[in-house]
Amino acid sequence: MAGTRPDRTERREFFVDVVGLLVAEEGLASVTMERIAVLADISKPVLYSHFRDRGALLTALLERCWRELDSVVKARLRLARTVDECLEAVVTGYFDELDRQGPVLQLMITGGRHEPAVEIARRRRHQVAEREWSAFYQQRLGLPAAVADPAAAILRTALQGAAAYWIDYPGSARDDVISTCLLIMRAGLDRLSRQQAKETRARQAAPARPRPAQARS
After folding, report:
1. d(Cα 146, Cα 129) in Å, to the nearest integer?
2. pTM
3. Distance separating alpha carbons of residues 168 and 190, to the nearest angstrom
């Protein structure tokens, strides 16, 4: 309906749009409440009524980046059948979104180390992702939680490191970085899976210990 004022959610999304454009053009350090208010053509009190500070603005942008990334990866995972296909869906989906979202997602992933609010959101995100990956490894590979938990954290870091390398070295071949990352992840999980199967067979083959005789009363 013409002339209808945008609701609160729409206004917040518009402000996040403005933040994203500024980050893409000038980087994270350029984001201030004053600058966003000017670019959005609003007063600072209006902006503060939606976001308490620049950390909240940056966190909202980061969470939008993740939502879009998750949507792409989950769509690919629905088509994956094997563990290898699932790994490929995650890694290629991650890199494709880095490509599509460009500087915004790249900066939000690799930058902002001195942004406390962003770091809190990032750590929370990592913990959720690691729990999901660990559950997958336990279900599909039979790994115990004591092994799957650190494996999830290590391999998530490997993926993020591969992405950071590709961003920091623009001359690197994207497909080479992806294939190297997948090779490391597959080899590590295969080794863990074989080691777990070996330990399981050893336990099953071990003779049962005789139960101690009960003392007569």
Report:
1. 17
2. 0.83
3. 29
